[in-house]
Design a protein that fits this description.
By secondary structure, this protein is mainly alpha-helical. It contains seven helices and two strands.
Length: about 180
Amino acid sequence: MKRIFIFLLFSLFFEISYGQNANEILNKRSVKTDSLRLELQKYNIQDDKVEYLQNARKVLKSTVDDVLKLEDFNNKTLQKVLMKPLTEYYDAFTFESNKKIINTLRYGFENKEDFINHYKASEALLLGKLIDRQYQALIDDSQRVIDEVNMYISKNLKRLGITIEEYEKLSENDKELLEKSFK
């Protein structure tokens, strides 16, 4: 009961904070996730955590669809069996609250409306994690590129006998002339 209360409070917080309902939040996060996925593809960035979360999203959608097809929705055992594929993605559905780790994977709902609302919040949590991880993958790749460029510049400055401090003091024109000698 306490977990349900925390969940309801959590979902109410989202609606009040953003002045949006769960469907609007899911739609915005879904669009953001899809655009970031395209950005990762554009730069050919592979990230295992992003793939894990994307797979969790696919499994969540198919699992929720399967559960919603139940004729006898009160059958908790059948709900549990249908939810089993999500246990592989247990970590994707966890969050920390009051220094406790809480997982949003649940079964045993008595009506479809409660089930749908619960899993909309779970999907919103998952999409939030996915967006964060996609941004982090883009940042990590950008940092890798910056590090490679800096290493290249340092290596070539050392070869030319110039320190980084001296290089930084040069005008943009002088830097461009010097960079041409790197090649």
